[in-house]
């Protein structure tokens, strides 16, 4: 796991991965945070997922958190020192300090058409390992809706190695299969596998 | 009975409690269905609509009416439950006393959230801490699992003939209620066997044995004696809470008590805490122990009745105790839990110092760093020759 090294504080729990999600209301950040927790459950790990509660307004900046751990999770505060930051809307980079409190080697995944090098040039992102994925475009092309959350989970799977992509696909087929028609399920699977392939690093 | 565990589920705290209620399958649930109500009631209404439970579900026009309907139902002889939170709890206020004084074994889930004003819907314990003198048994849970476990145990405690008092069980708003966490469930059969069939005492619907409930009991009546009887029931609840927990451990493998102690045997400093913050505190204790600091923790589970003797026994050897309150009692020496703990330790010799900490009001987050600050304050006090002042210490208070 590429994510064990980053914890500055709260390091008492070994192999605890802390992910902070930045998105806008309506992009499915909270759903993605929960999906990752459920994937962790499928891997036999401990998990926790919760949004930073506030007024639910479409388009307003929101934050959500996921913890994944080999041991039971006791801490319930918001994540101050995330090892992984996922940004579902690149316009947030100008108004939110998305890597606040994060260690130097933080993994930052941004939903963007641009390459990490281009993005870094005109954003305030200094440290960390930057990855980009055109999640909204992939969502439109596969799910037919501009909701970038499942593609982001596909990219996250690739860059963190937290889960096996085959397990993610199986999970989608089973879990989404209970709630959505096959067309939607297959669209989401296509979104995830494409993002898994297309995510770009520096 | 053999311990059989379900697979681990990923659920919100509210889903965990709705599942517990579904397995209890009470005769009647009366609830107000609109904000500040939580998802518990919505999820339960769905179970009723889907025919998964046999409950008569009564929606009412206010939380005051919800508790009034609960009282009517329970006095009639039905196993009755409800759920509330925040302002809803506050609006129930006057009828909460009535439920307790009628000795109705009602179980109520209360999701701990702040009271207005300013308007705030986030986690703190102001709602139920304000209701600590209503005559209800109060159990505070830490996480998803305990919210589920306490809901089931509450039924047995309330209905025990030594108690016959309403029980409210709590868990932290949003932090637990809305967050996804792990839960292991019993089977419905196990829960049904554990709680047993309901046997009402003096039900009003028993036409052959007519009773009067709630008459005037004035100057020359028995009001005073009623109150003494309520308090004696609280005294007997100590043993019942523990016995029910022990029996529950046999079917679940999960042990609970009146309070939970952690690393306390040789502790020199300790924190007393309620709810989900106990998790963060336990983690901080581990971290301090690794550095050689003799830190410990007590987590409050039963707050009414408050087991003073158990606290004195658990904490008498500790030099400095910090009590963390997520509610304040304005104008008092400290928050509600502080007042209880300090009072409980009064007869100890030597007497530990007890310091009040206030944190997390209106959902203000409480980080591991904040708990470390509290422990650092206790450590400093333990090393000092002077007794520290008992003015409130505030954790994570804004300075800008």
Topology, number of strands of chain A: 6
Low-confidence segments of chain A, given as residue ranges, are 1-13
Please, how many helices of chain B?
Answer: 12
Which quaternary structure do these chains form?
heterodimer
* Overall tally of domains of chain A: 1
Secondary-structure content class of chain A: alpha/beta
| CATH topology type of chain A | Pyruvate-ferredoxin Oxidoreductase, domain 3
The CATH architecture of the largest domain in chain B is 3-Layer(aba) Sandwich
Poorly predicted runs of chain B are none
How would you concisely characterize the structure shown here?
The complex is a heterodimer of chains A (202) and B (400). In chain A, 36% of the residues lie in helices and 19% in strands.
Describe this structure in words.
The complex is a heterodimer of chains A (202) and B (400). Chain A has 202 residues and is α/β, with parallel strands linked by helices. Chain A is 36% helix and 19% strand. Chain A has a 6-stranded mixed β-sheet with strand order 2-3-1-4-5-6. In chain A, β5, α2 (116-121) and β6 (129-133) form a beta-alpha-beta unit. Chain A starts with 15 loop residues before the first strand and ends with a helix. Mean pLDDT of chain A is 88; it is low at 1-13. Chain B has a 7-stranded mixed β-sheet, with helices on both faces. A 6-stranded mixed β-sheet of chain B has the order 9-11-10-13-14-15, with helices on both faces. Helices cover 40% and strands 18% of the residues of chain B. Chain B folds into 2 domains: 9-252, Thiamin diphosphate (ThDP)-binding fold, Pyr/PP domains (Rossmann fold, 3-Layer(aba) Sandwich); 259-395, 3-Layer(aba) Sandwich (Rossmann fold), CATH 3.40.50.920. Chain B is α/β, with parallel strands linked by helices and 400 residues long. At the A-B interface, α1 and β2 of A face β8 and α9 of B.
